[in-house]
Every structure is written in C-alpha cells, then in structure tokens.
Amino acid sequence: MSFFKRIFSSEKKETLDKGLEKTKTTFFSKLSKAIVGKSKVDDDVLDNLEEILVSSDVGVDTTLKIITRIEKRVADDKYLGTSELNQILQEEIASLLSETNTGEATEFVIPVNKKPYVLMVVGVNGVGKTTTIGKLAYQFKKQGYKVVLGAADTFRAAAIDQLQIWADRVDVPIVRQNMGSDPASVAFDTLQSAVAQDADIVIIDTAGRLHNKINLMNELSKVKRVMQKVVADAPHDVLLVLDGSTGQNAFEQAKQFTAATEVTSLAVTKLDGTAKGGVVIGISDQFQIPVKYIGVGEGIEDLQVFNKYEFVDSFFK
Questions:
Q1: Where is GTP annotated to bind (predicted)?
Q2: Which residues define the annotated binding site for GTP?
Q3: Contact in structure between 50 and 67 (CB atoms under 8 Å)
Q4: Which residues belong to the annotated binding site?
C-alpha cells in the first residue's frame, strides 16, 4: 500500500528482505499457529500475539504498547478478522517506529553545515563496532565525502589493527597511536588531522568496556571535552552499535551505554543471522533513540541506512 514507500533500489530491498528472512519466517510460523481456527481477533488471539512479540525480542513494554493499540482498534471497529491482523500489525509497528525514527533517509548523508562532521562510535567488544565503522567509511567515501578514522579504542591492540585493515581496504586515512595511549589524545590528533586535511567526516572508534560504568562515563566525557578543543560542538552524533542477534542482551547494553553517555543514534548489526529482528522495534521504542543503520549481511554493501517503511515492509512481506 502507498503508506509503505518503495524507495530503496531493488538490490538493496532484496538484501533487506533476505536479511530479515529468519525473523520473518519464525514470527509468521508462530502467528499462523496462534490464529488457526480463529475468524476474529479476540482475547485469545491477543494473548498469543503478545507471547509471539515478546519471544521475537520486541520487549515486554513495547509489546504491551502494540497490543493496547490493537485492542483499541478492535474496540473501535467492533469486529476485526484475523485475516486483517497482519495489516493492522504492520500499520501499528510502522506508526510506533515513526515516533522515534522521523527521518526517511535512504542514502549515507551528513549535514552540510557541519565540517568536519564528527561521529563517535560506542559499543561493547564483539558487536561489530569496528566492522560497522569500516563499512560506514566505505559508504561515506562512495558518496564523495572525505573521511578520516580515529583509532581511540587503545585498550586492545586488535581493535587498532582491525581498524587499520579497514582503513587500508577502504583507502581512507587513519590516526592511531600505540596500545595503551590516552584515547582522548588520539581523538584530539584525529580531529586536528581532519581539519588540516579539510575532511568532511571523522569517525572515532572508542573502547567497548562495560565492566565499570563510572570509568567508561569518565573516559567518554574526557574524549568529548578534548575533541571540543578542536571542533567546538563535537561530537555531532554518538552512535551506539548493538548486536541484534543477542536479543535482550542488546537491551541491557543500550541501558548501560545510555546511562554512561548521551547516545543520539543506533546501529543494529547481524540481523541476517538471527530470528530476533524484533529487537530493532523494541530498542528504538524503549530508548526513544532513532535507529540510523542496520546490518543485514557480511558484505561491505550490507550495512544499510534504516528506513522504517522499508523495514516494516520487509518484515511483513
């Protein structure tokens, strides 16, 4: 229907459809069983739907919000057939996502009035943080932007080396120091280098440790303060990378990081290998932070700009 705008290229849409295949198959097999033999949406159907949404990692609070909206529609319309349930669910989930994800971008773009645009990336080790940075660098460069990377996750030599590999692969400059260096010092040097090179965008990798929230908070605050000595309003975006395949654990990570620093956008990775794609809906709703990017495959092109209409269309296709 026209509400769900088909604005991706067919190739991107096919990748998205394929990436959400496991989530979709699991969700609809459960939904089919829940409504078998039922002709209308009644309390039993709603109870089963609630269980399905929770088990799909949408989250309890967001699930209850969706159920309440459907209950209202049942009450308003007096009679709703189970054949209409998919359509209603599609509309209500899209509406819910619209409350947080106001943008409808389909390309990797940055504001024209911020130069360099400073993107600070946070997230625990293992969620695909460095890979996401590499893919972002590739996509932004592809759009014609001049990109500089900063390896400020100095607590793991592997993190610095991995980012170097991506910088070489994408052919963008990287600023790095030795393992154990002050992360804020790396961030400062990166921004100075970016300004000198007249770069359009700077992507700063940061440490992914959650064992001590106070230390993490202090470290990220220091990185921000030091960056602002070079670019007054940096960072312009703090992107939290979450592993979608971890389901409820991703909620906990979001909770920890939003308590430690101001997170302004989300990237949810590894959606292609899981049936837990519902986590995108729940996290976006519960934390009221827009999902900016989603990872739907291992390829360099498989990081996509999140578009709520295309996501819901693929989820229910």
A1: 123-130, 205-209, 269-272
A2: 123-130, 205-209, 269-272
A3: yes
A4: 123-130, 205-209, 269-272
